Amino acid sequence: MIAFGMGKKIVNTHNNKGAVIFALSGQLGSGKTTFAQGFARGLGVAEVVLSPTFVIMKSYDVLMGRRRLYHIDCYRIHGIEDLVELGWENIVQDPNNIVLLEWSERIRHSLPDSTIAIDFRVIEQGKRTLTITEP
Predict the structure, then answer these.
(1) Which of 42, 45, 48 is nearest to 3 (CA)?
(2) What does pTM read for this prediction?
């Protein structure tokens, strides 16, 4: 519900300095991919959003506006150099792009200052907390 609302809100927001980037961090099973799925629905993404763990990056058309969602899983990334090979610089420079980075702690030091950080924590079975830090 929170993710859907954030997606719906952010779809019409532009960052003149480049892509809107969300850095998702937290332990395995804390809800990062579930958040990404709800966020994508809020953006109007028609496709089923699955974890890009094995392909590292997936992109989706955002149906509300001329935007593109990039869903990147950094779990197998060793550094920003791995993302540069996937076109990272072009992705983050385009203000029409929205980027969700799972396991962002692996490259946090290389992210733009405008990155919105969301930390996921499991409190108990079925309950999570999200801490959102905006620049």
Answers:
(1) 42
(2) 0.90
